[in-house]
What does this fold into?
Amino acid sequence: MPIVYPHKTAMPCRNPEERRRNWDEVAEGYTVERAIAEARRCLSCQDPVCELGCPVNVPIREFVHCIAVGDFEGAARAIRRRNLLPAICGRVCPVEHQCEARCALAPHQDPVGIGRLERFAADWVREHGDNGETAAPHLWREQKVAIVGSGPAGLTVASDLAQQGYPVSIFEALHAFGGVLRYGIPQYRLPKEIVDEDVEHLKALGVEFVRDVIIGKTVTIDQLIEEFCYEAVFVGTGAGSPIFMNIPGESLKGVYSANEFLTRVNLMHAYLFPEYDTPIRRPRRAAVIGAGDTAMDGARCAVRLGAEEVHIVYRRSEKEKGARAEDFERAREEGVIFDWLTLPQRLLGNEDRWVSGLECIRTELGEPDESGRRRPLPVAGSEFAIEADLVVIALGTNPNPLVPKSTYGLEVDSHGCIVADPETGATSREGVYAGGDIVTGAATVILAMGAGRKAATAIHEYLQHQLVDKGAMRAELS
Amino acid sequence: MDTNARIVEKQDLTEITKLFVVHAPLVARNAGPGQFVILRVSETGERIPISLADFDRDAGTVTIVVQEVGRTSALVNALGVGEEFLDFAGPLGVAVSLPDHGHAVLIGGGFGTGALFPLARELRRRGVRVSSIVGARTHALVVLSELLSTESDDLYVCTDDGSTGYHGFVTGCLEELLDAGMGFTSCFAVGPMPMMRAVAKTTYELGLPTMVSLDPLMIDGTGLCGGCRVTVGGKSLFACVDGPFFDAHQVDFDEADDRLMAYKEQETVACAAAGLRR
It folds into this structure.
């Protein structure tokens, strides 16, 4: 009988006062001792249901066991069989809703810290190297595959297909690779060096990375197929288009979409201005509208940009918030103030048209709406103002229409999402596959990777069929 | 796929205004009139949008005109023939919708004149008569009028100080031409915000349909950030994917003008840090 500890082994974190003023990674990761202690909590269930909770089916029982016996290379290799981006997923996966939610320990005590252990194994190999790592595969096949977007879905498809021997090209609109991992998730939560390493790893596999190409503008999908001779295309362009509230005052200076705010900070390094050229408003009192992961990112970036006070303003209650538990907790530790049941009605400006605050109304929760969450209803006469010299609107995103608009015969739904088979990623266009946020609307890194994994399998099958068909045609002709 | 963008020709139009012909076949192949590129010149640099002043699909080149207004444009203008842009992405925005009959008047202010050239060429190809008005503060700052004249049926130069051509603003010249019986059926204006605003005011009163090219601050240029939002006809639109050309009579110029100024203080800091005097 293993000794069972009721609590997850704690992960050392830098203290909130220190991290409020710098961008270093907040969670420091497990030490070897802590990792082994945590791994030993695993019951090694006969039927590891945790693995069913993982969108890419990481062999959790196996890798946790490897850590428990001190074989960290083995753990990393086991994870990498199913997940090429473990250092990223170990940091950003919403594990409490996925693998850890299914952990057999969970009903009675804390689940095994699967996310933390995944990160530990990935970081251990990043630091110490892996001697047993297999050599880069030979890209011996002739059928070329184009991948649109270098976010988590695209990176997964690229790695899976390169390992099958396909020459793969990834096209990225921006000047740096990684998609949301690059422009969206901040440095203190996901150091960009990790994204760089994963991209380098794929380059070493032979994947071609092409930046500054906006598919749908520079080159269309039809041109990729007809002129550049790609035999299959995967579209992983994400949910890029920010949603505004359509309330008065949104055009005031100092009002940002979360995408703009985070892109300035993360992609453009505006927090290092003037060492970097891209500027950003340095807030004194910031307000972030919304309570999802992106809102937490926005609020914690505002803290680090020097704001004395940062508010999260959300029209529902704490219970309905979309953010991961860990990020919510970290934001609170860093002093973020949560104004629940608060609906902004307009943004206020000063005489120079800089934002100066939000006019809000209190809400109460009524019957559940179509999202299943209780609908917020304004309470008459409860108007009040919040002072803010910087406002970030983090209410989600719509799919970027550039690819659907420019691609002949690509079916989209009423939200503008590409219609794709959930099992294969196949779209209404033969040879064109899609996955990630462009199909589902804004979701998570790991779900996008799961969709990429399925699409890569389907693309391989499709290309095999094409070969057989061509062979049959040739045989008939001769 | 080759995304390199190498400078093959550079012209000094004025002390602070340079024209670059850039070998960028991927950008040239799908380019249309009214579109722009986003470029970057240093690893720590900004992404800035620049209008296409010409494109030649066969030669694989595009032309841009850059006026030094801040740190990044100063870095661009210091580049020479043979050098490459660090990033050069496009064509972005939608090609402006052009008429296929009638008489168009194109109005260019300062280096904005460059962006009108592809419109003039396409309008003439469609059989539209093209009259052009080019304005600047003084004679030495009149740029690109010869280029635009090659695709114009007639061209008028205006200077604020009267050192050449019509003495006064482009709007004064436009009014005179209309009074003289020029039956313009459409108008396209590119230049500084106050000029476009004045043109919009003049043509609104005359009921002359007018499009202007807005150049708000941008980051990605693909509809991701929404920083370039402009209010047009009461609706918030993104200049990078819905524009850059918009119906001048619907544009909220006050707001567009104001949003351009958001980082004025920081620009001074950035220029000082780079040893540039502003």
